[in-house]
Write a structure and sequence with these properties.
heterodimer; A: alpha+beta; Umud Fragment, subunit A; 3 helices; B: alpha+beta; Arc Repressor Mutant, subunit A; three-stranded antiparallel β-sheet; two-stranded antiparallel sheet; 22% strand
């Protein structure tokens, strides 16, 4: 498998062309914010057009500062979306659903594809999205021990 | 022979890459990075052509001998055929 060394910023025009044609694109994301769901170098995601977005979907979003992120939808109210990485605690609020560029329709763990329609995928998404509170408590304790 | 419909070549970060669009993504979800000559051969294959015709064009465009050009063209066409990107 080709390990892409392209930046998402560079790839995006092409990704956009592919997904608006009704196709999907396999991207190898960089970074740690979606651990343990997406591990840089090993895992990749299948991106498609952002149709019928719902809570717990993982999406590609471009921040106003130009940075691209792949994070999970934690809340959705009308057209307002709240995002958070699976390895993050802080919520990113006030995002317009129309600014979501793509939706993850499957995750490749190595070469094994888990589709977002699979039961195990849905169960995992629900489970992991609801561990944020534990991550918050854990990091709070860790910080306090460090500072003590 | 020619490149099947649904495959496109684009420049990303200064490099040529080939990917599938639309329905074709179901058969092919990877991407192929093309070097300069491969990109040139790809362009030739956008229209129905033969290996001999491509070799002729390559010889006009690049400073290579016929033997090497024939070899390179054949190798790249084989790669594309194996990946299912070419209609005979």
């Amino acid at each position: 498998m080709n390990k892409q060394d392209f930046k998402v910023e560079e790839m995006y025009p092409l990704i956009s062309e592919i997904i608006s044609s009704g196709g999907s694109f396999r991207l190898f994301p960089k970074g740690t914010s979606m651990l343990p769901t997406i591990k840089q170098g090993d895992d990749s995601v299948e991106l498609a057009a952002p149709k019928k977005l719902k809570k717990y979907d993982i999406v590609l979003y471009k921040r106003p500062n130009g940075q691209f992120v792949i994070h999970r939808i934690m809340k959705m109210k009308n057209d307002e979306v709240v995002l958070c990485g699976d390895n993050q605690v802080a919520l990113e609020e006030g995002i317009d659903a129309n600014d979501i560029l793509a939706k993850v329709t499957g995750i490749y763990k190595g070469e094994k594809l888990f589709k977002n329609t699979d039961f195990s995928y849905k169960f995992y998404s629900f489970f992991w999205a609801n561990t944020r509170i534990f991550r918050r408590v854990y990091r709070g304790i860790k910080r306090r021990i460090k500072n003590a | 022979m020619k490149i099947k419909s649904g495959f496109i070549k684009r420049t990303v970060g200064g490099r040529n890459i080939a990917v599938a669009v639309g329905e074709r993504c179901k058969d092919f979800d990877g991407m192929i990075t093309l070097n300069d000559m491969a990109g040139f051969i790809w362009d030739c294959l956008e229209n129905d052509t033969t290996a001999e015709e491509i070799v002729k064009k390559v010889l006009k465009e690049y400073e290579v001998d016929k033997e090497k050009a024939t070899e390179d063209v054949a190798a790249f066409i084989k790669t594309l055929k194996d990946a299912g990107l070419i209609d005979e």
